[in-house]
Amino acid sequence: MNSSFTGGTIVTDTELQNVDLEKIEKAVSMILEAVGEDISREGLLDTPKRVAKMYAEVFSGLKEDPKEYFKTVFHEGHEELVLVKDIPFYSMCEHHLVPFFGKAHIAYIPRDGVVTGLSKLARAVETVAKRPQLQERITSTIADSMMETLNPHGVFVMVEAEHMCMTMRGVKKPGATTVTAVARGILETDAIKRSEVITYINKN
Ligand SMILES: Nc1nc2c(ncn2[C@@H]2O[C@H](COP(=O)(O)OP(=O)(O)OP(=O)(O)O)[C@@H](O)[C@H]2O)c(=O)[nH]1
Ligand SMILES: [Zn+2]
After folding, report:
1. Residue 30 needs a FRET pair 20 to 30 A away by CA distance; which of 62, 97, 153, 156 works?
2. Which residues bind Zn(2+) (predicted)?
C-alpha cells in the first residue's frame, strides 16, 4: 500500500483521498490568521498541509464500517465469555475537536460457537474512534455492530476516557475520567453475568 511519511506517521493514500485536503488547508490558514498569527512565518508554512494530513488520518474511520471486521469468523464451539480489555484509543470530541483518549473493554458471549478474530475487536475500536465522536456513541456503535453481525448471546462494552476539552480548557479538571458502558442481550438482562464481566475488567 502506498503511503506518505509525515514526521513519524504513516498516512495511507486511501486516507488522503477520502478528505478534501485543499479545503482543510484553506480552513487551517484562515484559523491561524483569525487568531492573529503570521501565516508567512517559517514555522507555519507547512502547518496547513500537516494538519490536513493529520485530519485525513484521525478521521479515517468516517469512511469505514466496523461491521466489516466481524465478517471474519471462526466456528469454535465456544459459548462462554470472550473479553478483550484495555484496548487503547484516541478520538476527537465532536464539540471542540480536541482529543479524548483512554481504553475500551469489549466482552461478548458467542452464539452457536461463532467467534471473531480478537484483533477485529481492536480494529472496530480504531474505526469508530477515528471520527468526530462522543464517548457514548463509540460505546454503543461497537456494541450494536457486534450484535448485528455476530448475533451473540450478549455484548458488553465499557469505555474509560479522559477528555481534553475538560482538562486543557473550559472546566479544567485534569484526571477526571468518564466511564460509559453498554450492555446488550443476555449481558443486559442477566445481572450476574454482567457483574462477572465487570469483575474481569477490573482485575489487574
Ligand atoms: N456526553 C458527552 N459530552 C461530551 C463529550 N465530549 C465532550 N462533551 C461535553 O460537551 C459539552 C458541550 O457543551 P457546550 O456548553 O455546548 O460547550 P462549551 O461552552 O464549550 O462547554 P464547556 O466545556 O462546559 O466550556 C461539554 O459539557 C463537554 O464536556 C462526550 O463524549 N460525551
Ligand atoms: Zn469537547
Report:
1. 62
2. 93, 96, 165
Per-residue model confidence as pLDDT tens digits over 72-115: 899 998 899 999 999 999 999 999 999 999 999 999 999 999 99
Examine the domain organization and report whether 10 and 94 are in the same domain.
no
| Ligand 1 neighbourhood includes 140 CB (under 6 angstroms) | no
1: pLDDT confidence band, cut at 50, 70 and 90?
very low
Domain assignment of residue 167, given as a range:
68-202
Residue 63 lies in a domain: no
Here the ipTM equals 0.91
